[in-house]
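Continuing the series of single-chain predictions for the mutant panel. This is the parent chain; the variants come on the following pages.
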Amino acid sequence: MAYCRFCGKELVNGQCDCAEFQASIGNAQKASGAADAAHGQGAPEGSGTARPSWENAVYREEKDPFLVPSFNLDFSSPRKFATSFKRQCGLSDPNSTTTDPYERNILIVPDLVEPEEGEHLVKQYNIAKLRSRSKFMKAEGHLAVTDKRVIFRAAGTSLSGNVVQQQQFRLDEIAGIEIHKDHLFSKANLVLALLLYCPFILFYINAIANKQFGGGSASAINIIIGILGLLPTFIVYKRFWMKLLLAILANYFLTAAIVFSRHSAFLIILMLIANIVIIANIIVVCNVPNLMIVVKTTDARAVVIGGKRALAIGNFRNSYTGFAEVLPYHDTVPAMAELGKVITDLQHQRAE
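Parent structure:
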């Protein structure tokens, strides 16, 4: 279900009869008629020109309904259900023109941002993921390059509703673009990893001290489960938190096997390997990918798109995206390879 971005009414066949919507699609006749019907007045007699619809607009305060106007939940997928539920409960923007809060597979120009006269989209990148875990905010950032502008737009969700951020630059004012893709050490991830690991360490110590495990026949089972728990670290692609958790569980079962077998040297070596694997996984999950985009303008300014902590480290304290972390996404590497050339070529074309 889509809604008019001007008046908030539900779109019928993608159209709305309000004056603002009709004007936005170039239907001047319907726009004038809608404005006259809405406000009871048109252009002054004998003026020869029609007054713009916004000059005749009358502000009316609209109160939100007490109950949900209609029940229209989408059960086709968990994500669509969550989106429709938030929209129905008033947590999403009713003026949004898209049902996907992340605006995936949607062109920024012309679908989300009105194009200027003669403006055309040249390239669009899915360039960043943005998140603030303490605020339960996450978004996806898209970078559009037209023959007149460069637009960065991030859209996503939070507990209190949808979030949207947009920054745009005139093509003529861009002197250069820097894209930094690196890693930052996350203290939050370290605390979470230790919270997972420490209880098991205490359990290991208690189990070995009191020998609170079963009979000897369970030793072989514990060894097999322990070895299987270490395998994902070497054969599973990414999913680092899952690897860490399975390695911790593997260490538990290997410790149980040591108790059964009366401290076998082979099992002690396996347990040491398991702890090395755990430490390696902790290091990996604590080094979080980081992305920073620096747009340099012709008046010697630098506008930075990046996470709060990365900006503080880079001494860009006057810039802030509203998110704690900005991470690379699908098109980050292609953008690093070709974005500068695309912008330079467009600037040369405009200069000719």
